[in-house]
Amino acid sequence: MMQEQVCITPLAINKAGQVKHFQIRLPKTAKKVIGVEIGGRFLNGSKLVPNINSDALFKRNQLVGELKLQSCEEANVFFAGELRLDSNMAYGDYTKNTQWIPEVFTHQMQTFEDVVITNADSTVINGMYKDNIGLQNQQSVSYLLNVYLWYSK
Amino acid sequence: MLKIVKKRYDIQIAEANKSVSKTFELDKTVKRIKGVLVTSDKDDLLYYRGSQKIEINNQEYFPENYESKLLMSGINVSPNERYYKIDTTNIGNGIIKLSYTDADDGRTTFAAYRVSLYVDCETEDEL
Prior knowledge:
Number of strands of chain B: 8
CATH topology of chain A: Jelly Rolls
Oligomer: heterodimer
Radius of gyration of chain A: 18 Å
Largest sheet of chain A: 4 strands, antiparallel
Number of domains of chain A: 1
Number of helices of chain A: 2
Number of strands of chain A: 8
Structural class of chain B: mainly beta
Strand order of the largest sheet of chain A: 1-8-3-6
CATH architecture of chain A: Sandwich
CATH class of chain B: Mainly Beta
Helix content of chain B: under 10%
Shape of chain B: globular
């Protein structure tokens, strides 16, 4: 019977434009990598500069950073993804008014992993993350990035 | 006859930046767990601050630091599809262990809140 499990790799990002190379070690029982999710939270003390176009009807979603993953088993990158802050949850929602605006914690859709299928026999996945929100804010923003790697065994 | 029921298990978070663990016993008529959902009476605190580990019968389904926002569903999601699908068969006298960690990320002000774990179960009538 196939079982799915997730491996979480936390990465602390502290500097603007920081590029972090890392390795994810999977258990020997892992057969295939079947999905990738990215999440994170700001560490205490980080102050984000508001969106420059925050008064506009449609706000720019801030790009927090970019992630790329490569398996030791196969050539080329098997996953490239972005972590973004959703600033437009209320766009086009007629239930919003001056007292209440839909937020991500009330209106988010279900979150699912990005499906990938790649060999995990070598049990080592190489990753690269590049910060962008620090560059946008022109100051270092501290946050903890979580890379969720779903694998089958 | 198989029945589908939704169970709810609560824990209270009274202090900021602390972990709270609680073990819940499932009814013995529960044969299978089909999905889980995490929600709260203060959604924003759960979304920005929460992470949890969920074990069912000592098997880890979501490891420590798994963010709560990944198991939440907003009101934009159809009620029939709000549960995160997992599948456990022959659950027996099931035990769910929920270990929740609150961690400040600067975007919310702490107030005591409730974390609720909803479980989508299949039960069988006792003979």
